[in-house]
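Appendix B, record 7
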Amino acid sequence: MKKLVIIFLFSLAPFLSQSQNFDKYENMKEVDAMVMTSKMFKMLAKVDLSDGDEDAQQYMRLIENLDQIKMFTSSNSTVRSQMETDVNSYLKSGSLEQLMRINENGKNIKFYSKPGRNDNYVKELFMYMEGEENGKPMSVILSITGEIDLSQLSKLTSDLKVPGAEELKKANKKS
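Structure tokens (predicted):
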């Protein structure tokens, strides 16, 4: 029985470590980090808005179903290299599907998703960007988890000033 438990734990280890890959960036001084939790979204969803503002209502429906948003950016070459390694490792876990790749204006941006309840929803939207932002080399990791309505997502990423938000907006218009 002990062998079964040990084998089970070892088989789960890669999945558990994958989900934690990016948390280490939160406390690095070379990284700008932003983490919003479900508690923040629940608090925002309780904000009393005018019933007549349909955009605000749709926005609230989107954020109340989010679990977490994590964004890590760095221009430090060592950290950027580490980010690339961690992203590649995370993508090899096989749980994400590539949505699109964009290479323009000195940026290489890749979007991935984890399927949701239907084609209009995903459980995770993951973006990785390498390139230049305002003339500086920059890497960005963005992970949004929850029950994500893709039709409303570009509004959220634009409001958060996420690098790659414009490309995501273009992608939503194409689909």
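Remarks on this record: Confidence is low (pLDDT under 50) at residues 1-20. The two ends are 51 Å apart (CA to CA).
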